[in-house]
C-alpha cells in the first residue's frame, strides 16, 4: 500500500469526522481516534502527544469571533519540555 493511499484514507476519515487531525508543528501531524471534544499536551522533547485531564478552552474565557460567523471548535495544544536535571 502506498503512502498516498494511507494519507488519502486519513484525510477521508477526518472529513467524515471519524478521526481528528492535530497539527502540533509544521510537518508533524497526529491523527486522534478520540473524536470527542478534548485538548492535548505535546512534549517537544519526546514527541509524545497526550490528552489533557481537564478542559482547557473554558479557562481561556470568551473568544471574540467576527460578525456573521459561528464558533465551530477550539483546539488547544499545550507544548511542554522535560525539566533539566
Radius of gyration: 15 Å
Count of structural domains: 1
Question: How many helix segments?
Answer: 1
**Estimated helix fraction:** 10-25%
- CA(first)-CA(last) distance: 44 Å
Number of strands: 5
**Strand content range:** 25-35%
Structural class: alpha+beta
The neighbouring-strand order within the major sheet is 4-3-5
Principal-axes shape call = flat
Q: Give me the strand/helix succession.
A: HEEEEE
Poorly predicted regions are: none
Average per-residue pLDDT, rounded, comes to 86
The major beta sheet can be summarized as:
3 strands, mixed
Q: What are the salient characteristics of this protein?
A:
two-stranded antiparallel sheet, 3-stranded mixed beta sheet, 5 strands, 1 helix, flat, alpha+beta
Amino acid at each position: 500500500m502506498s503512502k498516498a493511499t494511507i494519507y488519502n484514507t486519513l484525510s477521508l476519515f477526518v472529513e467524515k469526522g471519524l478521526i481528528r487531525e492535530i497539527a502540533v508543528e509544521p510537518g508533524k501531524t497526529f491523527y486522534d481516534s478520540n473524536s470527542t471534544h478534548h485538548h492535548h499536551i505535546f512534549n517537544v522533547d519526546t514527541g509524545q502527544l497526550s490528552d489533557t485531564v481537564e478542559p482547557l478552552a473554558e479557562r481561556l474565557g470568551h473568544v471574540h469571533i467576527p460578525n456573521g460567523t459561528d464558533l465551530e471548535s477550539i483546539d488547544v495544544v499545550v507544548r511542554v519540555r522535560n525539566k533539566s536535571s
